[in-house]
Amino acid sequence: MIGKITGRVDYRTTDYVLVDVQGVGYVVYCSDRTLAMLPGKGEVTALYTDLLVREDNLQLFGFLTLAEKEWHKLLTTVQGVGAKAALSIAGTLGVDGISRAIALGDIAAVKSAQGIGPKIAQRIVTELKDKAPSIMALGTAGNTTVEADTDMVIETPSPSTRAASSPPPAQTAGAQADALSALVNLGYGQGEAASAIALVLGDQPDLDSGGLIKAALKRLAPTG
């Protein structure tokens, strides 16, 4: 399995780039968003990759971040969503957009991708909504564009039996940091994200990062 390649950009087309790795050229299919972010001809690039094996063909797909790669793999588990369709969704929405659309059940956003009809969009949201938080949590480490301050500690409302000055357990603090980073990366302000997380932890203090993200998104979702 080829998991990552590093080499020089030889040339690119509308759907793939040829990467020269020590004299061997790899055809790597990418979303248009990823292709637009690659360096110019002759410059070095690195891509996480996923190899699709078929009886008569081998295709290599490339991604700039681990979060993008994991979303691609997860999308292709949905019946009717092939590798090229998953790239279309990634190119239209981006990693953050996919996370937000699926976590919040935004079918219209998913079907805005070329080649994705309403039935497929509905299936994607229905089948992946419970899996979205785990990929979003990965995005805090696997997405190099994350700039949130993950050292921020959120003060959690606690019962009177819990000393206010007691620091949260290491696991809880880590989940808070992951959730805060993921929510900020989705476009929420640090204040509103921190408040939502604090409210969730007041009711469910033992949630892991995935569960915390999912519950906080529900609180942040518009009502009415």
Automatic annotation (TrEMBL):
Q: Which organism is it from?
A: Paramylibacter kogurei
Question: What name has this protein been given in UniProt?
Answer: Holliday junction branch migration complex subunit RuvA
The UniProt family comment states: Belongs to the RuvA family.
Pinpoint the DNA helicase Holliday junction RuvA type domain residues: 1-62
**Has keyword ATP-binding?**
yes
Q: How does it assemble?
A: Homotetramer. Forms an RuvA(8)-RuvB(12)-Holliday junction (HJ) complex. HJ DNA is sandwiched between 2 RuvA tetramers; dsDNA enters through RuvA and exits via RuvB. An RuvB hexamer assembles on each DNA strand where it exits the tetramer. Each RuvB hexamer is contacted by two RuvA subunits (via domain III) on 2 adjacent RuvB subunits; this complex drives branch migration. In the full resolvosome a probable DNA-RuvA(4)-RuvB(12)-RuvC(2) complex forms which resolves the HJ.
> Source organism's superkingdom?
Bacteria
Q: May I ask which residue range the UniProt record assigns to the signal sequence?
A: none
Which residue ranges does the record annotate as region Flexible linker?
160-172
A cellular component term, taken from the record's GO annotations: cytoplasm
Listed NCBIfam families: ruvA
What GO molecular function terms would the record report?
ATP binding; four-way junction DNA binding; four-way junction helicase activity
Its domain description in UniProt is: Has three domains with a flexible linker between the domains II and III and assumes an 'L' shape. Domain III is highly mobile and contacts RuvB.
Query: Which segments carry the region annotation Domain I?
Result: 1-64
